[in-house]
Design a protein that fits this description.
Shape: globular
Radius of gyration: 13 Å
Largest sheet: 3 strands, antiparallel
Mean pLDDT: 96
Number of strands: 5
Low-confidence stretches: none
Distance between the termini: 38 Å
Strand content: 5-15%
Strand order of the largest sheet: 1-3-4
Number of helices: 5
Number of domains: 1
Order of helices and strands: EHEHHEEEHH
Helix content: 55-70%
Structural class: alpha+beta
């Protein structure tokens, strides 16, 4: 099982997107999640750091500069997706990644307050 730590760069990116009102609250994550080729395009344009900042967690045991290093995506490389945060919180909770679940929940609360 992956050993995840909260990805500060990803959390900061998510907060920036919320503050800029760059989010999607309607599209199911199953429809909004980027494809593998879109992920490859992101890496090609912005490197692994640019790819990683769209994820809430880093697998501390995975090799650097691999997609496997990053977990709990929250957007489509353009906007944050609310359903992705819900999914991340649920999946992290179910798998004992408490800090990731906590940060996903905090981001959800921030997003919902922003929308209110």
């Amino acid at each position: 099982m992956a050993k995840y730590a909260v990805n500060g760069a990803g959390v900061n990116k998510a907060r920036q997107l919320i503050d800029a009102h760059r989010y999607d609250t309607e599209t199911p994550w199953s429809d909004a999640a980027p494809s593998a080729s879109q992920g490859n395009d992101q890496i090609e344009r912005h490197g692994y750091d640019g790819y990683g900042e769209w994820h809430l967690a880093i697998d501390t045991e995975a090799s650097q500069e691999t997609k496997d290093r990053y977990g709990f995506p929250f957007g489509d490389f353009r906007r944050l997706n609310r359903a992705a945060l819900v999914h991340a919180k649920q999946r992290a909770s179910q798998n004992g990644h408490d800090e990731v679940a906590k940060v996903a929940g905090e981001l959800l609360e921030t997003l919902d307050r922003t929308r209110a």
